[in-house]
Amino acid sequence: MSTGNSPTPSSPRWPAASLSGSPTVTGVRVASALLPEPHPDAPLVVVTGGAGYVGSVLVRWLLAEGYRVRVLDNLMFGGDGLLPLFMYPGFSFQEIDVRDRKALKPWLSDAHALVHLAGLVGYPLCKKLPDMARRVNLDGTRNVLELCPPEARFIYASTGSNYGEVQGICTEDTPLNPLSLYGELKTMAEEICMNRPNTISFRFATAFGISPRLRLDLMINDFAYQALMNRYLLVYEKHFRRTFIHVQDMARAVVHTFRCWDRMKDRIFNVGHESMNFTKEDITSFLKDRLEFLLYFAEIGRDEDRRDYEVSYDRIRAVGFSTSIDIHMGLNELIGGLRLIRIQKPYSNV
Ligand SMILES: NC(=O)c1ccc[n+]([C@@H]2O[C@H](COP(=O)([O-])OP(=O)(O)OC[C@H]3O[C@@H](n4cnc5c(N)ncnc54)[C@H](O)[C@@H]3O)[C@@H](O)[C@H]2O)c1
């Protein structure tokens, strides 16, 4: 249990005194000390869906790399995660719906690269809003593709959901078998994207970890939150196997790709790591090592998300990318950070 121990004091090592290197205490200069001010000729990276769970982490990585970044998002879940970024000269934002071609057009014409994250994400949301899911995830993707300058680099955020239930280990050449509308739409959109030259599709593993726009509907985040805050976790189909990636590593994959574009372009990559293939039961046992909670595996009942697969990441490793955050680091981060989340019940005093 790592929950209650208070840290032991140690002797801190302060930075050496330096008068010349201190940041000036005025808005932008202090900000620039944290993130660099981009060169006026720095490439402009447009990120659709940049206010989301992945996007709000990715945008920070891109700014730190010295890119100019423009986020286009309709703020379906708000934009709080982007608020601290408005002080950076390299950052800009437009409230745009990817279904609206006319509104989209002027904000894509000068892009040097585009990372297309916008969409209705996850099978429950697509099941709830199927027509909207088609229009955003498919028609919206077509709009972005058609309006993006042909010479711009294009990265599509695809998903391992395309694989569905697979015997054996999935490589990028495994036939796709999506089991939900979300998976079907992502598969179709990926096919359209890969007809465009100068494009890369990332089939990301399932994300977890803290982001400025947190999602508690992701499996590991949800399990950690329930175990930590409710002290109770009910799990169906404990043997289902999935593959996970920390959200910071998703952003690192994009940054890595821009550094070695010519080796990677026009291909599809699974993004994750074999050491992050786990069953649901594995995740609960890692949580049990850290927290006390009641765990119940249900024999009756069914997880509507039928994904069950194990993935190979040889291809992305061959171009020099490997993840950096393992399950233990990620869970420690979640257990530390999720305590801050307060979900108030409106009809209860406690
Ligand atoms: N999170 C994961 O586990 C995961 C795994 C694999 C792939 N992906 C893909 O990564 C991308 C980002 O996922 P996320 O987890 O950040 O989801 P998210 O729901 O947090 O972010 C999606 C963003 O898209 C925006 N958006 C929705 N509809 C829009 C529209 N019509 N016009 C403009 N913006 C719109 C939302 O406002 C939101 O900010 C998605 O394409 C998703 O399919 C995510």
How would you describe the overall organization of this protein?
The structure is a single chain. The protein is globular, with a radius of gyration of 21 Å. The chain has twelve helices and 14 strands. It has a domain at 27-208 and 245-277 and 312-324: NAD(P)-binding Rossmann-like Domain (Rossmann fold, 3-Layer(aba) Sandwich), CATH 3.40.50.720. The relative contact order is 0.13. The chain has 350 residues and is α/β, with parallel strands linked by helices. 33% of the residues lie in helices and 20% in strands. It starts with 26 loop residues before the first helix and ends in a 13-residue tail after the last helix. The strands form four sheets. A seven-stranded parallel sheet has the order 3-2-1-4-5-7-11, sandwiched between helices. Strands 8-10-12 form a three-stranded mixed sheet. The chain has helices spanning 27-34, 55-64, 101-104, 123-128, 130-147, 181-194, 219-230, 247-259, 261-264, 280-288, 314-318, 327-337; strands spanning 44-48, 68-73, 91-95, 113-116, 153-159, 165-170, 199-204, 206-208, 232-236, 241-246, 268-271, 277-279, 294-298, 308-311. The structure holds nicotinamide-adenine-dinucleotide.
Which key terms come to mind for this protein?
33% helix; binds nicotinamide-adenine-dinucleotide; alpha/beta; 350 residues
Architecture of the domain at 27-208 and 245-277 and 312-324, according to CATH? 3-Layer(aba) Sandwich
CATH topology of the domain at 27-208 and 245-277 and 312-324: Rossmann fold
**Shape category:** globular
Q: How much helix is in the residues?
A: 25-40%
What quaternary form is this? Answer: single chain
Hetero compounds: nicotinamide-adenine-dinucleotide
Nearest-integer average pLDDT: 90
For the report, how would you describe the main beta sheet?
7 strands, parallel
**How many strand units?**
14
CATH homologous superfamily designation of the domain at 27-208 and 245-277 and 312-324 = NAD(P)-binding Rossmann-like Domain
List the strand order in the largest sheet.
3-2-1-4-5-7-11
